[in-house]
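Title: Prediction job returns without error message
Component: structure pipeline
Severity: low
Priority: P3
Assignee: unassigned

Description:
Job completed but the reporter wants confirmation the result is attached to the right record. Sequence as submitted:
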Amino acid sequence: MIYGYNQKLLRVNLSTGRISVENIPDDVVREYIGGRGFVAKYMFDEIPKGADPLGEGNKVFIAVGPLSAAFLPSSGKIEFGAKSPLTGGYGDSNMGGHLSAELKSAGYDMIIIEGIADKPKYLYIDNDRIEIRDASEYWGMGALDTEEVLKNELGEEFQIATIGPAAEKLLKFACVSHDFGRQAGRTGVGTVLGSKRLKAIAIRGNKDIKVFDPEGLLKKSKEMYDTIFSLPGFTEWAPYGTADITTWVNNVGALPTRNFKHGYFKPADNLTGRDIREKILVKDKGCFCCPIPCGKYSKVEKNGNEYYVEGPEYETIALCGSNLMLENIEDVAYVNYLFDNYGIDTMSGGGVVAFALECCEKGIITPEQVEYKELKFGDLDSIEYLIHKIANRHGIGEILAEGTKKAALVLGKGSERFAIQVKGQECSGYDPRNAAATILAYMTCDVGSHHNRAWAITYDVEVGRFEVKGKAEKVIWMQHVRPMLDTLTVCRFPWIELGFSLDDYPTVLNLVTGFNYTWEDLKRLSERVWNITRAFWAREVEDFGREYDWPPARFYEEPTIGGAVDGMHISRDTLEELLDRYYSLRGWDKNGIPTREKLEELGLSYVAESLGL
């Protein structure tokens, strides 16, 4: 056994009811570390080519890392993955909270859920006691409501992940929820759990985890906590969380507005972290072992009722606030609550609603399709109407529940030009049309458009929006660093917001495990994972290649209106140049497919063979 790991994989087959515990081999531990690395490796190896994302062949992979439950700062992340029902390609998403430490303390580094239950179930894990329990009475409940009920029934010490009604109805961008506001939101992993009729996972664990150098780890951990408390960002950023950047993003002309038609929203100053703190905040909220309580547990009143929600965080403010033209934080928080309890990713959810509103505006969605209601941007009733329709697959919601890319194929009439997605996943909360590294990061992200693999907007502003030189190199560097933190299952905020040294991470990894990794070693491992996820796309999507990396025409043909970059947009020729450079640096062919040489260099010969290279 390797220090810092249980090296145990819990396999649960919902079709047969069989539960087994397997060993995770030493070489998998050393070559993939944990978290996202385990998810990518096992997904490529175990999901059969061409598997239906909502069928028996797909699986849900849940993994923690070596730093989980080691009481290090901000070490509360957990990774979920599955073949994405939204995109058809590789899908994963991580979330914070307390689930990762509980799973690790129960004695497992990974769960693989396979098969399809004959009726609603939930997975009960109490150390070595594993049961598949009936969940019929919870089916149809909201994600937040289900967690509350299970907490009351099982006990506060259980950590619980749930899905909402949207996942039960197989909406393609449903999420997994935990801790009353943390979500594994992207790529539709919640939808896959819904297809398997698994309503929740409840975990309690109290086992010890052996580490290589306890005294050295304690000393380094204390040093890291002391560093956080001494840094300016601790007092300047933590009180407001991610919402603190709203004004900056707006000022640089990158705040998505009116379905990404603009990058500037005049009322954005009403949608900041300070507005949350002054108007709706109940208390600050942090994840396991996190001294930076960036979560903001809030209360909003609507129609005589009180609603509690964590947030809104920046991405929700951008996609469900400015992008929908909502002008006050209370309305955004209410939309946040609706999405959270339905169990819907707020980023894709906000993107789909914005797309629908523009389609209504342009007459592409007809009055008959929305029951002759006048739906418009900035109107909370219009937005709430669409959310209910989408979540329940009623009327126009049946089309929109498939995501913007598929909805545009059905609706036609040029709507694909402003279906704001890449590879089928709706874009994160930064308008990239005036930021070369940002748009390249969206185009090449291995789960479809998403900011968490390479948050490049500050680099674009620093070195020049339309500067091409060095942008591909910077994006690739970020795509190795940030996903590696997902492999360790630690939060990136201490590094990004507080200035932690990246060298701290191999240091603590080695103290926990007894390994002797440098940061360069970890980046190399991250490159292996990145190539596996790209190869998964190439294997699963028949015509996958350069075309799938392309963004919507709005980003390279329509200039933004208003703000710091008024009248500007990136050109198609620049995007072609960026992609050529990126593929070359990656060692991929001109169509963006990993070459046999690159895969063999990374020790992935078997992956090359599976692609027929």
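Comment from assignee: result matches the submitted record. The chain has a mean pLDDT of 95.
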